[in-house]
């Protein structure tokens, strides 16, 4: 009997998480979609059924380690005792001048975007270890290339995601677990709907949630070259790919100047 692969996605009710859930469902995966937005999850479950999938959904606040462990345990049990792909996607963004964003909002960004990822990694580990060729996908961002003005704390959280991805990819190699991160620039989702920064003005918001979902699915099943070179970070879109190349070759002083100019500062 063919084995149904499984994917657990945080922040799955909307945006990139939702598009990713539907894309994996179309590919025959058993999809676990978790979020604090239970209304969004109801429509997601209907949409997964509509593409012939079997949805498993539930409430999850990624900042709560106990709830994370509970939901991952329930999901893997219901999905045949395997966890092929864990996607730490839930995240929030606050933009503006650092001093104008109140401290509780800043700390909330850190809690969800960093502690949420640690909670997901920690709770998923035993199930990933027990599943051959499992993969963790962490949502980083192009803002993990150089610190971004007007989204300073958000950008710093994505450097955290970059760092923990690199470290665990090395650490968990011994268990056969790949740990990778996805780096989109601005994507048209609710997250970017009402924001206006120097860089959104200069670079535009060009990517769709489906572009990122397709990049995630492709990164989970990498090409021969990506596997051979052990690619850990996956930039999405031409602008991010160009920025990654520039960051390798441009002296740091010029990178600062470029980022300053793009931010209009
Ligand atoms: N949109 C972009 O421009 C962009 C660019 C690069 C990276 N990303 C990253 O991609 C990921 C998804 O972003 P998106 O654009 O789809 O955002 P979105 O706002 O469209 O969706 C985020 C989802 O996360 C959920 N969520 C928020 N707090 C949560 C919590 N505490 N626990 C569980 N779920 C929670 C929301 O309810 C929502 O359904 C984030 O990590 C984001 O940082 C987004």
What key phrases describe this protein's structure?
binds nicotinamide-adenine-dinucleotide, two-stranded parallel ribbon, alpha/beta, about 260 residues
Structural class: alpha/beta
Mean pLDDT: 96
Unreliable runs: none
N-end to C-end Cα span: 60 Å
Specify the overall morphology: globular
Q: What is the class in the CATH system?
A: Alpha Beta
Order of strands in the sheet with most strands: 3-2-1-4-5-6-9
Q: What proportion of the residues is helical, as a percent range?
A: 40-55%
Order of helices and strands: EHEHEHEHEHEEHEHHEHH
Largest sheet: 7 strands, parallel
Rg to the nearest angstrom? 18 Å
For the record, the CATH architecture stands as: 3-Layer(aba) Sandwich
Beta-strand residue fraction: 15-25%
What is the CATH topology? Answer: Rossmann fold
The CATH H-level homologous superfamily: NAD(P)-binding Rossmann-like Domain
Structural notes for this entry:
By secondary structure, this protein is α/β, with parallel strands linked by helices. The protein has one domain: 3-Layer(aba) Sandwich (Rossmann fold), CATH 3.40.50. The protein is 50% helix and 15% strand. The strands form 2 sheets. Strands 3-2-1-4-5-6-9 form a 7-stranded parallel beta sheet, with helices on both faces. Strands 7-8 form a two-stranded parallel ribbon. The longest helix is centred in the middle third of the chain and has 27 residues. Bound molecules: nicotinamide-adenine-dinucleotide. The site of nicotinamide-adenine-dinucleotide (NAD) has 29 residues, from helix 1.
Quick overview:
The protein has helices at 15-26, 38-50, 65-78, 103-129, 152-171, 198-203, 209-220, 224-228, 238-249, 252-262; strands at 6-10, 30-35, 55-59, 85-88, 135-139, 178-184, 187-188, 207-208, 233-236.
């Amino acid at each position: 009997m063919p084995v149904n692969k499984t994917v657990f996605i945080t922040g799955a009710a909307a945006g990139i998480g939702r598009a990713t859930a539907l894309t994996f469902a179309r590919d025959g995966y058993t999809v676990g979609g978790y979020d604090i937005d239970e209304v969004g999850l109801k429509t997601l479950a209907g949409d997964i059924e509509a593409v012939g999938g079997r949805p498993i959904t539930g409430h999850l606040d990624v900042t709560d380690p106990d709830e994370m462990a509970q939901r991952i345990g329930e999901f893997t049990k219901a999905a045949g005792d395997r966890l092929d792909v864990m996607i730490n996607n839930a995240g929030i963004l606050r933009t503006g001048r650092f001093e104008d964003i109140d401290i509780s909002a800043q700390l909330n960004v850190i809690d969800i975007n960093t502690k949420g990822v640690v909670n997901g990694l920690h709770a998923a580990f035993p199930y990933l270890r027990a599943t051959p060729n499992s993969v963790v996908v962490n949502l980083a961002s192009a803002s993990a290339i150089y610190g971004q003005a007007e989204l300073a704390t958000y950008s710093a959280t994505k450097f955290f995601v970059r760092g923990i991805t690199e470290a665990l990819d090395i650490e968990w190699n011994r268990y056969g677990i790949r740990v990778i991160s996805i780096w989109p620039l601005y994507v048209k989702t609710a997250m970017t709907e009402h924001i206006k920064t120097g860089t959104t003005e200069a670079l535009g918001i060009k990517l769709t949630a489906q572009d990122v979902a397709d990049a995630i699915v492709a990164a989970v099943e990498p090409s021969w070259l990506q596997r051979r070179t052990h690619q850990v970070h996956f930039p999405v879109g031409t602008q991010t790919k160009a920025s990654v190349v520039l960051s390798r070759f441009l002296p740091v002083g010029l990178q600062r100047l470029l980022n300053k100019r793009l931010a209009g500062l």
